[in-house]
TrEMBL record:
Domain of life: Eukaryota
Protein known as: Uncharacterized protein
Sequence segments annotated as region (Disordered): 43-62
Cross-referenced Pfam families: Transposase_24
InterPro entries attached to this UniProt entry: Probable_transposase_24
Length: 115
């Protein structure tokens, strides 16, 4: 596997992983099947429409947590927008900004802004 500067990582990334386990993982990740899977997943990710910034947390779970904190004033639209913004409130890229602005515009046109 490649580490910093695209160099092959032959050392485990942390002490909790033994050298034998790391070597086994590197061998497994280097199989034709896994390499094809990585390439397929990379290609699929390139087609994602907007960058999701909540990590492992889903938009639905984020929405539920915020409604518990803030009440019914927190909207599904707000959850969607928050899920595509960085912690500072910016968008991670222009493509995501464009999509979020279009979502807001369509919701306003259809008068579903406060869903």
């Amino acid at each position: 596997m490649k580490g910093e500067n695209e160099e092959l990582s032959i050392e485990p990334p942390e002490q909790r992983i033994t050298q034998a386990t790391w070597d086994s993982l590197v061998d497994y990740w280097g199989t034709d099947e896994k390499v094809q899977e990585f390439e397929r997943n990379k290609k699929n990710r390139a087609h994602e429409q907007a960058t999701h910034t909540l990590g492992a947390k889903s938009i639905a779970r984020h929405n539920q947590e915020q409604r518990e904190k803030l009440g019914d004033n927190y909207t599904t639209l707000a959850a969607y927008i928050k899920a595509h913004q960085t912690k500072s409130g910016d968008y991670p890229n222009e493509h995501t900004r464009s999509i979020c602005e279009k979502v807001i515009e369509v919701c306003q046109e259809k008068d579903i802004y406060h869903v």
